[in-house]
Amino acid sequence: MPVTPEQQAEIDALRAQPRQTLRAVSEGMEAHLYKAIPVLDHGFVRVIDYMGDDAAICQAARVSYGKGTKSVQNDEGLIRYLMRHWHSTPFEMCEVKLHVKLPVFVARQWIRHRTANVNEYSARYSILDREFYIPEPSQLAAQSVVNNQGRGAALTADESARVLEILKGDAARTYDHYEEMISDTSPDGGAKQGLARELARMNLPANIYTQWYWKVDLHNLFHFLRLRADAHAQYEIRVYADAICKVVADWVPAAYGAFEDYRMGGAVLSAKGLECLRRMLKGEAVTQETSGMSKGEWREFEGVLNDPA
């Protein structure tokens, strides 16, 4: 269960205590504040705090006083200009702090984005819960024969069942050993020395859940989302990115619209790719052999031209 009854009671209590403020407020983000969005089987994402809105981006770009808003149309046009020309610093004026519950192996991918502030649940101080990510059968696939870091064809029903039994059995067994190692009571009820938590945790699998607070500015959040909400990203981190995308779209709708158009929906071509495109538009039949590109480059170029995604 992503959120315990105690956590839900805390969320309800926080949302029941509105406060007056002189800060810029995003009504879209206020609707998300503190709420937990379920992700995977036991995970969630929730907004703890935020700063700024679309107007704050424009205010920073114009270095003006007050709201910095000339009109909604002018602000949206400015934001699209900033996104289109890769002017990133105005987007850094907006920040968000998220509370995320996620499997450890997802956290290890996530932490590669080093332009954020992170504070993780301490397994040296506290005992980890018996919660493990167990994939749905539809997410179990063989190694891709094209992409060395991706999935290929789905496993058969029999093979999926066998893998799931291994995952569940290993998770239960390692957690039983974890509890046994840290316990100060022996199986016969007598006293014994329990192993330090900082050592006992080493035997736990990478699909156990951890939690952290993750604070990041909008520019670096967009970079995270561009990579992790992409169709080629690993499913288990992509579903977190997808959940965050929905929150950001409500928080800064103009900025997210520009991001979706220019980054998520757009494409970057190399000089060779741009030249090939110009030749094609003139009616020339360009092939990989005449393009000057490697096979990998050509495959990606064709993907940009032909892939609806």
Describe this structure in words.
This protein is of the alpha+beta class and 309 residues long. The protein folds into three domains: 5-128 and 209-264, Gyrase A, domain 2 (2-Layer Sandwich), CATH 3.30.1360.170; 134-206, no CATH class; 271-306. It is 46% helix and 14% strand. The chain contains 13 helices and seven strands. The strands form two sheets. The chain has a five-stranded antiparallel β-sheet with strand order 1-2-3-7-4. A hairpin with a 3-residue loop joins strand 1 (36-39) and strand 2. Helix 3 crosses helix 4, helix 4 runs parallel beside helix 10 and helix 9 packs across helix 10. The longest helix has 26 residues, at 157-182. The relative contact order is 0.14. The mean pLDDT is 92.
Short summary of the structure?
Keywords: FAD, Flavoprotein, Methyltransferase, NADP, Nucleotide biosynthesis, Transferase. This protein has 309 residues and is an alpha+beta fold.
